[in-house]
């Protein structure tokens, strides 16, 4: 049913005049007559009696007026509700994150996000930083989270939170007894690395080179996740560099020790990343806004973890 015809019919019923209804609605009188006649044809019954010179609703017309008012009120309520839905974040939200943000930071953000935006369906996948950036570039992910930034005009970065990288060793490791280490103390050690494409691996290689170590000559083990690296260190397989976000529980349980290297403040930042040319959905904008809001809280959490190192 054409609700426009119902609105015109109700105006005729209200004013009792086709010409007045036409003037009020900004239509021609023939247009008003056409819509009323269309309704009469649809219902197979006369709706308006014009024999007395004034429009008077027939019994069928009175019945239609009652139902038309209900229909138009329901239509207005539907439009209002749909407008509210359009202004509320909803639908799938695809997030790609590298290991540390994906496993230790984004879950706490998404828990808060779910409380505020129950109509959104977040889907978080964890991969190495290079794959995360490729997912954002290719449009497979609405938002990415990484610890490694690449210069690319197609990408827009925002700060997620900071991180503290620490050298870790088994609790009984001989180097753990030294208050501070010189670079040469690390020579000859077996190092456990993350896989190619990992942001932590890139930072670790750069730091070892800066310390003057021959990276190519180091004994090494390569593992595919932060948790695997931490477990391997705890079991005595070697030493490594990892995020304080990940190792904090192991330090509290004294399953690992932090090796303090002289003159090294190993800090980095995590970032969220968006595709510049892709219009952000309400769900994506709501997530980036929440990240900005939670920055102080995340920094306070990391500061509490750092107390273990003091």
The major pleated sheet works out as:
7 strands, mixed
Task: State the helix count.
Answer: 11
- DSSP E strands, number: 11
Distance from first to last alpha carbon? 75 Å
In the CATH scheme, what's the topology name of the largest domain?
A: D-Maltodextrin-Binding Protein, domain 2
Radius of gyration: 34 Å
Give the DSSP E fraction (strand runs of 2 or more residues). Answer: 15-25%
What is the CATH architecture assignment of the largest domain? 3-Layer(aba) Sandwich
CATH top level assignment of the largest domain: Alpha Beta
Q: Which consecutive residue ranges, at least 5 long each, have pLDDT under 50?
A: none
Give me the secondary-structure category.
alpha/beta
Q: Mean pLDDT score, rounded? A: 88
Annotated CATH homologous superfamily of the largest domain: Periplasmic binding protein-like II
Q: How many domains, in number, for the residues? A: 3
| Percent range of helical residues | 40-55%
Overall 3D shape: rod-shaped
Order of helices and strands: HHHEEHEHEHEEHEHEHEHEEH
SSE layout:
Elements: H1 3-15, H2 18-25, H3 29-43, E1 48-49, E2 56-57, H4 59-86, E3 91-97, H5 99-116, E4 120-126, H6 129-137, E5 143-146, E6 155-170, H7 183-186, E7 190-194, H8 199-210, E8 219-223, H9 226-234, E9 240-243, H10 244-252, E10 256-259, E11 267-275, H11 282-306
Parallel strand pairs: 3-4, 3-5, 7-8
Antiparallel strand pairs: 1-2, 5-11, 6-9, 6-10, 6-11
Helix pairs in contact: 1-2, 1-3, 1-4, 2-3, 5-11
